[in-house]
Write a structure and sequence with these properties.
With about 350 residues, the protein is an alpha/beta fold. It has 2 domains: about 210 residues, Rossmann fold (3-Layer(aba) Sandwich); about 110 residues, UDP-galactose 4-epimerase, domain 1. The protein contains 11 helices and 13 strands. Strands 3-2-1-4-5-6-11 form a 7-stranded parallel beta sheet, with helices on both faces. It has a two-stranded parallel sheet with strand order 7-10. Helix 1 links the parallel strand 1 and strand 2. The chain is globular and about 55 Å long. The protein starts with a strand and ends in a 17-residue tail after the last helix. The C terminus is likely disordered. The structure holds nicotinamide-adenine-dinucleotide and uridine-5'-diphosphate-4-deoxy-4-fluoro-alpha-D-galactose.
Length: about 350
């Protein structure tokens, strides 16, 4: 049976490429809009190769209304999954205008174009960061949005509120806000994964680059948090589980209003637990030094994932060893990410 056509903004990025792959495997048609500022067309070529199905790629900016109008006039889009945006927390502090322009301005332009085209079904990439520093763990969707400490987090919070107001204003809108916890991992083929530009901000890409020899050692930010081993605790989830969450969310778009879901495992792991697990699975040492706390980091948070299970039928199925062995396979086979073509075939589990 022919399934509907989904616009995936930011589909050439980390989460978007894995979700596009899963949509194609589920029989959807996929149109990707991405300006490639942090994405790769090579990722999309690999998605097509792995799935054996074509997708449509449009190089364009989410803020470009003319580009969006043309896209909607040329494609009969059923729903939009909106990943496109800037995501580096530290960078956002120095470049607030860029973050509000892309993340908030881009979302406004997209919603205006959707409205004009009569497309009212939207899934938005939000973040656990919107709960703010004072929320008790585990985070539950019934908790209010809290204060945010950087423009990135504030932009996510502002888009969430904007989308809620939009769905209140017109019952044709059906919107799902997905609050991701900490996505890691890669497609099990080792051909698709996270390819950060420059020095990785996030823990797992950094550890993986140490393991593969691109960086000498890891800095562990803070050893004096009120956690079991003194390092921060996060809820890491597999990017393939996250991709499945988006496919499940599409099913919720038959209901009017805004619906919010945590996508996490419900389990917290410390930085040192992640280092130890990576050493065990990769059989490589991960040298590390403790460094001062990173500004803005919270000691510990994880999801209450039950609402997504009850209403979307979604549950994170992949465990820590899958997350790390898939990250390691991707990093080993693509030591320089998508910029090299060496060893792009799967060599099985590590
Ligand atoms: P990513 O940077 O890999 O992907 C984002 C994609 O958007 C990139 O391909 C980039 O080129 C594209 N893009 C950026 N600005 C654009 C613009 N103006 N027009 C068109 N395309 C543009 O990031 P990701 O990790 O895949 O994250 C996807 C979404 O999920 C983002 O909105 C991010 O804020 C959100 N999110 C990510 C995490 C995480 O830890 N990775 C956690 C919570 C939320
Ligand atoms: N960390 C290190 N060394 C590093 C990198 C990270 O010790 O080189 C530590 C951090 O201090 C933190 C933990 O590893 O304790 C996780 O850090 P990440 O940067 O991987 O993830 P964050 O929890 O800070 O943030 C991520 C995304 C945000 C998102 C948030 C919640 O980057 O966009 O998850 O969803 F908002």
């Amino acid at each position: 049976m022919q399934k509907s056509k989904i616009l995936v903004t930011g589909g050439a990025g980390y989460i978007g490429s894995h979700t596009s792959l899963m949509l194609l495997e589920e029989g959807y048609e996929v149109v990707v809009l991405d300006n490639l500022i942090n994405g790769s067309q090579e990722a999309l070529r690999r998605v097509e190769h792995i799935t054996g199905r074509p997708l449509t790629f449009i190089k364009g900016d989410i803020r470009d209304r003319a580009c969006l109008d043309q896209l909607f006039s040329e494609h009969d889009i059923d729903a939009v999954i909106h990943f496109a945006g800037l995501k580096a927390v530290g960078e956002s502090v120095g470049q607030p205008l860029a973050y509000y322009d892309t993340n908030l301005g881009g979302s406004l332009a997209l919603c205006r174009a959707m409205q004009a085209a009569g497309v009212f079904r939207l899934v938005f990439s939000s973040s656990a960061t919107v709960y703010g520093p004072d929320a008790p763990v585990p985070y539950h969707e019934s908790m209010p949005r809290g204060g945010t400490s950087n423009p990135y987090g504030t932009s996510k919070s502002m888009v969430e509120k904007t989308l809620e107001d939009l769905s209140h204003s017109d019952e044709r809108w059906s919107i799902v806000l997905l609050r991701y916890f900490n996505p890691i991992g890669a497609h099990p083929s080792g051909r698709l994964g996270e390819d950060p530009q420059g020095v990785p901000n996030n823990l797992l890409p950094y550890i993986a680059q140490v393991a593969v020899g691109r960086r000498p050692s890891l800095k562990v930010f803070g050893d004096d948090y009120a956690t079991e081993d003194g390092t921060c605790v996060r809820d890491y989830l597999h990017v393939m589980d996250l991709a499945e969450g988006h496919v499940s969310a599409l099913g919720r778009l038959s209901l009017p209003g805004t619906h919010v879901y945590n996508l996490g495992t419900g389990q917290g792991l410390s930085v040192l637990q992640m280092v130890e697990a990576f050493e065990r699975i990769s059989e490589r040492p991960i040298p590390y030094q403790f460094a001062p706390r990173r500004e803005g980091d919270l000691a510990a948070f994880w999801a209450d994932p039950h609402k997504a299970q009850q209403e979307l039928g979604w549950l994170a199925r992949r465990g820590l060893d899958d997350m790390i062995s898939d990250t390691w396979r991707w990093q080993r086979q693509n030591p320089h990410g998508y910029r090299t073509e060496i060893n792009t075939t799967s060599h099985g589990a590590s």
